[in-house]
Design the sequence.
């Protein structure tokens, strides 16, 4: 779990260096300019990088993309679509599970996945 | 009105070239110890800066930040931070890769050659606090002694003597120097010297590309190492 006190830029820079990538090399891998990557690392961009971009960066560094997207202040595109497709039921579900611990949420997710598997067998 | 950061000029002691070269070699030896020996060019100066010296490295609009249009790079001792101006970003201007790397190596030169000296200087105390002013700012065309020293360090670090000798013999198939008089000197400028420089830069290009430095920087280094000479001295044996 990432340190919540750290900004996304700090975390990105620290993880990049820990993985042994220089600024220019990593910028090249992530298909961005060193100037832009430097701005992101300092939190000096006018708009946070897109969810897709954060996903690329997180995956290149072997990190959890969803967590990093949230840290960067973005919502993954598929989540936006999920809510849009069920505009009443989905927000209601999210509000209902709000307040559960991470472990409880994981357990619930497992239960739902099991149910879906069973449902698929019929 | 635009902010202009006045950079105080700190005096640094005279350093013989040999000492500067030793310092650059020492840094490469440390890198070999902590990571991997550099057995062929290019020297991974960007990795050395971030992974070995553990300095923060930033590419930014330094010219606006410091209010001078000719700023290339700067170093902040207190924040352990080196910045390079975004005009040198090689992803936008690939031809500037050599200058980008040289600017960065130049700032590393300040870190290795001048930091300790300023730490001992009570009047420079503020340079070692957080959110400090830059200790040195590199501007094109300006060359006080500390900048010349940092340039010499950058040249030795990016083009280490032995690597240049090896690359030279591989390329030329001989370790013999080349005389300027043997190069095709054109007639583009009014003065002969400028034409010679052009011919030497052109000649230095293949090696410059291998070392990821500018042709000009390679030409200086080849002259310094006496591989590119005015006149080939006859050998006794």
Sequence:
């Amino acid at each position: 779990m990432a340190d919540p006190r750290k900004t996304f830029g700090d975390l990105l820079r620290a993880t990049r260096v820990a993985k042994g990538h220089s600024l220019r090399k990593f910028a090249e891998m992530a298909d961005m300019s060193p100037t832009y990557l430097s701005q992101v690392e300092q939190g000096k961009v006018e708009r946070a990088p897109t969810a897709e971009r954060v996903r690329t960066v997180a995956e290149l560094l072997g990190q959890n993309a969803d967590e990093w997207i949230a840290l960067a202040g973005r919502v993954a595109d598929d989540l936006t679509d999920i809510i849009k497709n069920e505009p009443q039921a989905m927000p209601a579900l999210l509000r209902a599970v709000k307040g559960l611990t991470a472990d409880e949420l994981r357990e619930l997710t497992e239960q739902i996945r099991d149910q879906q598997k069973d449902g698929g067998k019929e | 009105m635009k902010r202009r950061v006045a950079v105080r000029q700190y005096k640094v002691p005279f350093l013989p070239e040999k000492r500067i070269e030793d310092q650059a070699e020492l840094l490469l030896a440390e890198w070999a110890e902590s990571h991997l020996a550099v057995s062929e060019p290019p020297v991974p100066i960007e990795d050395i800066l971030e992974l070995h010296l553990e300095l923060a490295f930033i590419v930014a609009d330094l010219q606006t930040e410091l209010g001078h249009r000719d700023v290339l790079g700067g170093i902040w001792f207190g924040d352990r931070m080196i910045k390079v101006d975004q005009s040198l970003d090689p992803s936008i201007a690939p031809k500037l890769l050599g200058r980008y790397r040289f600017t960065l190596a130049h700032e590393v030169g300040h870190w290795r050659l001048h930091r300790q000296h300023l730490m001992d200087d009570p009047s420079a105390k503020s340079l070692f606090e957080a959110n400090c002013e830059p200790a040195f700012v590199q501007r094109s065309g300006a060359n006080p002694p500390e900048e010349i020293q940092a340039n010499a360090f950058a040249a030795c670090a990016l083009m280490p003597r032995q690597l240049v000798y090896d690359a030279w013999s591989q390329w030329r198939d001989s370790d013999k120097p080349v005389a300027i008089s043997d190069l095709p000197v054109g007639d583009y400028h009014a003065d002969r010297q400028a034409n010679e420089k052009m011919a030497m830069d052109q000649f230095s290009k293949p090696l410059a590309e291998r070392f990821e430095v500018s042709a000009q920087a390679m030409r200086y280094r080849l002259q310094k190492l006496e591989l590119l000479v005015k006149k080939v001295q006859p050998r006794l044996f």
